[in-house]
Write a structure and sequence with these properties.
alpha+beta
């Protein structure tokens, strides 16, 4: 199938995601400019077709918008991957961006787990709180059913640090979802 459409409406947000693992258009609108830029970078570097429309309680702050977008995007990946048969399963990638270096490794295992190591040099990037990066990736990984390790090795510009990490995760996911073999890549015979 490798395709999913997901919607989630709460009292705080309204989010819809359309995902094609094999490519397509990218259209992102969350009301948080830097977050839109990061999601676009994730999609482009992952080779995914991705349309996201989120409206949220930005009068409070960006937390619910960012986290709920991660939840819905994670659910879209879970559905698009089905039983996870016939994919490479693992992916890892380093991305340098000027003075910053980020790394991501993923296992599309059905066992959600997140290890996140990043200290951002600035608290805000435009209208985006740097701490929301971890919130997004946690929501995404838990709802996608993946193990995700992400780290910013170094850097002194939060924009570069964050963008390198979103791109690294995009590349790692691209590698992990690539078609490979017929069944699940597991000695157990299933994931």
């Amino acid at each position: 199938m490798r395709f999913s459409e997901q919607n989630r409406v709460t009292k705080e947000t309204n989010c819809s995601v359309r995902l094609d693992l094999d490519g397509g258009k990218t259209e992102i609108s969350t009301g948080v400019g830097f977050f839109d830029h990061m999601l676009n970078s994730f999609a482009v570097h992952g080779g995914f077709g991705l349309k996201i429309k989120t409206s949220g309680d930005l009068n409070v702050d960006g937390h619910h918008t960012v986290e709920d977008t991660g939840i819905v995007l994670g659910k879209a990946f879970a559905e698009a991957l089905g039983d996870r048969s016939g994919i490479a399963r693992f992916g890892s990638f380093y991305v340098p961006m000027d003075e910053a270096l980020a790394f991501a490794a993923v296992d599309i295992s059905g066992r959600p787990f997140v290890v996140f190591h990043a200290e951002f040099c600035q608290e805000r990037i435009g209208d985006y709180d740097s701490c929301l990066t971890e919130e997004f990736f946690r929501a995404f990984a838990v709802h996608a059913g993946i193990t995700l390790h992400g780290s910013v090795k170094y850097g002194n510009n939060a924009h570069h640090q964050t963008e390198a990490l979103y791109k690294a995760v995009g590349h790692a996911m691209r590698i992990a979802v690539a078609p490979a073999g017929n069944g699940p890549l597991s000695t157990k015979g299933l994931l």
